[in-house]
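Much of what follows relies on a compact textual record of a protein's fold. Think of the row as the fold of the chain written in a discrete alphabet. An example makes this concrete, so a full record is given next.


***
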Amino acid sequence: MYGGDEVSAIVLDVGYTSCKAGFAGEDNPKAVFPTAVGVVRSGKDGVVGKGPAAPGEKMDVDPPAAGAPAAAAAAAGTTAGTEEVKYNIGTQALSIRKDFMDIENPIQDGLIKDWDLAQKLWDHAFKDRLRIVPEEHPMLLAEPSFNSNECREKLLEIMFEHYKVPAVFISKNAVLSSFSCGRSTAVVLDSGGGATCVAPVHEGYVLQKAIVRSPFSGEKLTEYLLSVLEGKGTNVRPPYMLNKKIGKDGTIASVTEITGLENIRPSFKRYMQKTIINDLKETVCRTSETVFDESSNAQIPFAQYELPDGKVIDVGAERFKACEIMFNPSALEADKCSIFGVNSPSELQALHDCINESVGKCDSDIKKDLYGTVIVTGGNTLFPMFKERLERELAESISLLKVKTISPMATTERRFSVWIGGSILASLGSFQQMWISKKQWSEEGVRIVHSQCP
């Protein structure tokens, strides 16, 4: 048990798209910044990326590793002890063009894979955004509902041994989203940038056996939309590639491509292209109220979107297709299946079918309560009419039970529902006995996370 309540707890939610950090008891996270990190590695030739860090952003520099084993250094393409790594963190830092900068993400398939990169993000959150000393604040950490035991143990180990925090609690995303909506029993559809997951929650606990995952994440939908537009001949050129001249009337008079970009990494170009398409997706895409048939909607009005080079494109059926495939996977083109990691559309499951499968794995006496509280959360559910379409599809597939979907009305609340739930939980007086203290950690080791944070 942790008895210290004189300082605010810190709530951390690291997702594939963004990191959210702030103080327990507040309405919204104090810091929100991209999870992607710009990494510049210098070799024996001393080449590091050009361009300074943006004001207010972070460029961490790891000094050369003195005495590094020669074999390991050779494998990395450098001589021993000469590699220097620069980390660019934050929206502004990532948007500035730098030679040899790769865009890397510590999260893959919804789980943390690169712990060194994750620590850079936490360092940035603590030191540069929240400006706190980790040793003085208990930490509530959000984790994916399907997180592995190894990841949970590693997370606890880093917090106590590296950051030396006084207490830690790890809570599952689905539970926190339920708390943010004032529910203790619900089935939670959490669709974010890197993962989509359906998890039933009963009396504040996730039913692990009934978790169902889906490849329909925001990142995959962005890749799909970019692929469709490129297939139609649209050239998405990021701003860093362009030299624009503005006329007297304020419009773009001419656009030329900047030369000498041979040292720009493909991952950086793709990241910047996806940033543009993600904005297009959030601006013009919407969910069809009923099953969308492209042939019968050939006369659908176009939505216009201006690209950074000033070209205005007409987005027709594509603005519905990106959402439609989540409810009707058969609408996915066969040549686009690889984006979602399958060979044919028949291998994909609609979101409402994922919910039905998840609830079907639960005990029959709680199914009515679960269908009565279907919580919709995550940035990938913000398309207009998404909630209404989901409720309609569920009602048609489950005729004997009443279905009710719940989603925060405000965009911010739906996007940050996991963090908000953590803020509520960590500020409750009754929760203080749930913390894992440093003393408990030293006595029982990493295994305590499984009994204390189920």
Q: What stands out?
A: The chain has three domains: 1-33+112-175+416-454, 182-216+349-407, 218-340. The longest helix spans residues 266-284. The two ends are 16 Å apart (CA to CA). The longest strand covers residues 196-202.
